[in-house]
Write a structure and sequence with these properties.
single chain; alpha/beta; Aspartate Aminotransferase, domain 1; 15 strands; binds pyridoxal-5'-phosphate; Aminotransferase; Aminotrans_3_PPA_site; PyrdxlP-dep_Trfase_major
């Protein structure tokens, strides 16, 4: 019997973050090619990719110099490793490229294949750091509710999604405090006071656990997968102060925010944060190859490189030559074409302003975002913030209409999230807004609004 691609997908492929029963029954969209900022499914339908893949193809899908860098490297040295003091040229070149673009305290990098492994690496690094400093009790790590830091058991434990924790037993040294979710707050404080107040949860948690037991705080500058939670301006200065005063390391997860997404190379600059460790992945290769890692500050590196003994951690593909080739080419484009500087001066403010124009739409309760990262919170009633429907149905319905009308976005609860490539033109942003407005109109109609 003839099996279509869709049948084979349903029969054999277990998709990540998917309702597997539903997928087995209904299957899903299969994408077969991409060009510039557009993706095409197997039936030839075109969608504007308002998510840059999974927040990673920041330069879109037509970057021939990245292709060439990968294929050239394939001919020269398709694989070699970096274990036991050996390595290869591209891993060294990539390390140098990263040091050049990351904040000045970072002069060393540890490579992984993914953001999840990079966050596992962070745990290994902070525990080793404090062991070497003869503070072995400093093991506890504080993270935030609704955070996403990856899917390995340890990275998933750092994350704060109940839906993930319900399915496995995580590590026992992670604690979660509230995220600075202004839209979800219905107390008396103004935005600035709320920012400080929610940051104070970190101080309280450190005091509860005992400073002598706490190793680090991990957070994204702007929480992405939680629905683009943009912190009040007062949040990060307070968090930074607390970490310094109480001698705990600050791990900044820039897997989504890094490489230009917020209008600077790193959101550490956007929010004036000085992390001790910085997680990267995704946009580092424009999504063309799997690559992640941790930028290690001089403070941490000085300890782990000035004491004898092996750091017993690493991956067969740490610093893979093809991933590094893609990474070097990606960083070269960002640098040479001044993608981030130009984007921050023009397309990013344009994107944010166009999105803000949707604040008047009857089902839009809030528009928030920075740079090329944004979310629209959907509501039934603007003043009471009543949800469109229970169980996040409103977001899912809106996303369905967006896809139907040629726009790929993501729904998180009742929010619609968008993070288009940094290389969009004004006309392309206009098209995104047009398609999004159609989706909002259909959603409003669906709920009789
Ligand atoms: N950290 C953040 C903030 C992420 O958004 C993600 C992935 O979406 C990860 C870590 C995990 O990265 P990966 O999927 O490459 O393991």
């Amino acid at each position: 019997t003839f099996k279509t691609l869709k049948d084979l997908d349903k029969a054999h492929y277990l998709h990540p973050f998917t309702d597997l029963q539903e997928h087995k029954q209904k299957g899903g969209d299969i994408f077969s090619r991409a060009e510039h900022i557009y993706i095409y499914n197997s039936e030839g339908k075109q969608l504007l990719d308002g998510m840059s893949g999974l927040w990673c193809s920041n330069l879109g899908y037509s970057q021939p110099t990245i292709n060439k860098a990968i294929t050239q490297q394939l001919e020269v040295l398709p694989y070699y490793n970096s274990f036991f003091q050996c390595t290869h040229q591209l891993a060294v070149d990539m390390a140098k490229s990263l040091v050049e673009v990351t904040p000045p305290q970072f002069n060393k990098v540890f490579f992984t294949n993914s953001g999840s492994e990079a966050n596992d690496t962070n745990i290994r690094l902070v525990h080793r750091y404090y062991n070497l400093l003869e503070k072995p009790n400093k093991k506890q790590i504080i993270s935030r509710k609704n955070a996403y830091h990856g899917s390995t058991v340890a990275a998933g434990s750092l994350g704060g999604f109940n839906g993930m924790h319900e399915q496995y037993t995580g590590v026992n040294y992670v604690h979660h405090i509230a995220e600075p979710n202004w839209f979800g707050y219905d107390g008396e404080l103004d935005r600035d006071a709320f920012g400080k107040h929610v940051a104070q949860e970190l101080a309280a948690k450190i005091d509860e656990l005992g400073e002598e037991n706490v190793a680090a705080f991990i957070a994204e500058p702007i929480q992405g997968a939680a629905g683009v939670i943009v912190p009040p301006e007062t949040y990060w200065p307070e968090i930074s102060k607390i970490c310094k005063e109480r001698d705990i390391l600050l791990i900044l997860d820039e897997v989504i925010c890094g490489f230009g997404r917020t209008g600077n190379w790193f959101a550490a600059e956007t929010y004036n944060i000085e992390p001790d460790l910085l997680t990267f992945a995704k946009g580092v290769t424009n999504g063309y190859q799997p690559l992640g890692g941790v930028m290690v500050s001089d403070k941490v590196a000085d300890v782990i490189t000035c004491n004898e003994g092996e750091f017993t951690h690493g991956f067969t593909y740490s610093g893979h030559p093809l991933a590094c080739a893609a990474g070097i080419a990606t960083l070269d484009i960002l640098k040479n074409e001044q993608v981030i500087e130009k984007g921050a001066a023009d397309i990013m403010p344009y994107f944010q302003a166009r999105l803000r124009s949707l604040e008047d739409h009857p089902i839009v309760g809030e528009v928030r975002g920075v740079g090329m990262l944004a979310a629209l919170e959907l509501v039934k009633n603007k003043s009471s913030k009543e949800r469109l429907a229970p169980d996040c149905e409103g977001g899912a319905i809106c996303k369905m209409h967006a896809i139907e009308h040629g726009l790929m976005v993501r729904s998180v609860g009742d929010a619609i999230v968008t993070a288009p490539p940094l290389i969009c033109s004004r006309e392309e942003i206009d098209l995104l807004i047009t398609r999004l407005t159609i989706a909002l109109d259909y959603t409003a109609k669906h709920y009789g609004i």
